[in-house]
Write a structure and sequence with these properties.
mainly beta; 4 helices; Immunoglobulin-like; Jelly Rolls; 12% helix; eight-stranded antiparallel beta sheet; single chain
Amino acid sequence: MKATNYHKLKVVPKTILAFFLSLGVLFSSCKDENEMSDFFTLKDNPSKMEVTASGSSETYTVQASGSWKVEPLRQEHWVKIDPMEGNGEGTFTITVSKNTDEEARALTLFFTVNGHLQNKVLKVEQAAATDGEQLEDPHLRIDGISDRLDVLEAGHTGKYILRATGKWKLDVEETSDWLTIAPMEGTGDTPITLAVAKNIDVERTANLLFFLNEVQQSNSIAVYQKGVKLQVEGDVVLREDFSWLTYGNEVFNVTTGETRIGSWNAAELAKGWTSTINTTEGGGSYASIYARPGFIKLGRTNYGGDLVSPKLSNVQRTKNLVVTFKAVRYAVSDHNVLTVGVKGPGTVSVSQFDVNNVAAVNSNLESCRAAWQAPAATYSFVITGATAETQFWFLGGAFDQRSGNWPATVNRIFIDDVVVTVTK
């Protein structure tokens, strides 16, 4: 007779139970880790946005552990959300249009982080319209602006709510690249951004026109911006002493520590001075200008370097300018040519200088400082027809100074104290 092993029958269920219990702990652990990693909250923990029938706008601050999205329960034309997604800390704005119905309305907003639904919800509730609100005429306007917006010379960027009872469009009467609005069209109440650029010229005005359901409205907004004094002879548009450069040594022939422009820090490069990459064979494919304490050296053995100014953004309209600067030759044995020119609008009165000013002893600090102070250190040229897009440049000799291509293999020039003024 076959005997039944009761001991094994008792052991098997316990083993299976332990297996399923371990799986449950594992799944629970994974779920807990996901929930902990998907952090989401709204600042001040609001749960409801209550809006009157006339409509309103509210901005909320998000703190989240990843990519978040606002997920409305359903799409409604009377609620606009901008933006509807972000990453980490950010904001979104809810704009609720005017309610002209006799019934109140509501919409629930859900949120996800990294694709996972969060427990947090925000309910948008709007009151019903009164009889007077239901009968209100169609309108198109911008909250906070009546018929004129005054802006200072420095410019302005502002966020506004445009109120509309239908499909709307904005247009600028004059061609005005200094005034931008986004968006320029839409439907119903909409957040817009209005930006006015910096003004370096005389006062200016642009008229903003309104169209509702493709019909031009009688109201408009005049955007007026203050201007500045028109430039006259002697006004300075650029002054640069390079005091923000602190590399190397004041003594001309001590090259230790001088630093090529490619290694300047971000703040120094942000000043806007640039240089051309020297592509001459063997030149190393880099720009050959070097920072010293408060001045710049152009060029090195066999290869020249140029110094290009920032755009002369302070120039009003079209002007004639005089560029004054100081230049000192590296050493008596160096060649002495300095060429100048412009990029963009304008022409130069002189294209080349012979820099004969040199330190009596270029290994002596006092002699080097005296060379900067000598009357022969100051040079100037005129740019005719310059605009805010004009740049000027200095080049020590030529880019290719290898033997046989230039009178000397060295044509190093120091540059400092650049001043640009308006002239006749």
